Amino acid sequence: MRDERIKEITKILQTKKRIDIKELERLTFSSTSTLRRDLMFLEEQGVLKRKHGQVILSAFNTVELSHSIRESEHRREKRAIANLAKDFIGPGMCIYLDSSTTVYELCPYLSEIDNLIIFTNGLNTAHTLSTIANPTMKIFITGGEVKHHSASVVNYNTDNSLLEHFSIDLAFCSARGIDEEFVYEVSFSQALAKKSIIDRAKETILLLDHSKFYQSGFFKINNIKQYKTIISDYLPDENLLDAANLYGIEWISEE
């Protein structure tokens, strides 16, 4: 219930930008005490500010929502995307999984594949893999700063001594958005962390649901030409497909 309320509040704020708390109570059918707790939680994350009986949206494109909120969004689509992505992974590969909730959905499939070497900056991903791991699997978590709420570790130094000893066959990453030229992230540290991995991986697969089409953030991860394959729940319009085709990118969808 709480996650649904949080999603509803953020959706309203993205539309209205500023709203009276009493009006927000009415729109969300929440009690004063329940709404106060939800607003305090979102304010702690930097999503909004409360001032003089109003709620004001912060610069939303710079805010990275918590893992628990993101995990509940488009869950069916993310699982469908992961089901398609699993077919690219074979025994004995060295792969990277970013901390996104979309890539996280790959975890259940990995226990069935032998001799994987897995790097991740996702705390939830590492914990889940350690619980369900195939005994032949080796799991490494990248070092760096633990990001509050997002359940990820980011390293501002692009040189990672552990990764220097491995050759990454395939990196799986998601993003805040995509357009005909670039892939975007909401956080500079997340964008930098993903770019450093993509630059060293042999191939990268981008996983994103349709809500990311034509969404942008303040930080560009890289040009779309750096991805081998893009997997989504359904295909985008002709403009995005033409841009992908221009660089020989394979775009796969559930439908």
From TrEMBL:
<dbReference type="Pfam" id="PF08220">
    <property type="entry name" value="HTH_DeoR"/>
</dbReference>
<keyword id="KW-0805">Transcription regulation</keyword>
<dbReference type="InterPro" id="IPR014036">
    <property type="entry name" value="DeoR-like_C"/>
</dbReference>
<dbReference type="GO" id="GO:0003700">
    <property type="term" value="F:DNA-binding transcription factor activity"/>
</dbReference>
<dbReference type="Pfam" id="PF00455">
    <property type="entry name" value="DeoRC"/>
</dbReference>
<dbReference type="InterPro" id="IPR018356">
    <property type="entry name" value="Tscrpt_reg_HTH_DeoR_CS"/>
</dbReference>
<keyword id="KW-0238">DNA-binding</keyword>
<dbReference type="InterPro" id="IPR037171">
    <property type="entry name" value="NagB/RpiA_transferase-like"/>
</dbReference>
<feature type="domain" description="HTH deoR-type">
    <location>
        <begin position="2"/>
        <end position="57"/>
    </location>
</feature>
<comment type="function">
    <text>Repressor of the lactose catabolism operon. Galactose-6-phosphate is the inducer.</text>
</comment>
<dbReference type="InterPro" id="IPR036390">
    <property type="entry name" value="WH_DNA-bd_sf"/>
</dbReference>
<keyword id="KW-0678">Repressor</keyword>
<keyword id="KW-0804">Transcription</keyword>
<dbReference type="InterPro" id="IPR050313">
    <property type="entry name" value="Carb_Metab_HTH_regulators"/>
</dbReference>
<protein>
    <recommendedName>
        <fullName>Lactose phosphotransferase system repressor</fullName>
    </recommendedName>
</protein>
<dbReference type="GO" id="GO:0003677">
    <property type="term" value="F:DNA binding"/>
</dbReference>
<dbReference type="InterPro" id="IPR001034">
    <property type="entry name" value="DeoR_HTH"/>
</dbReference>
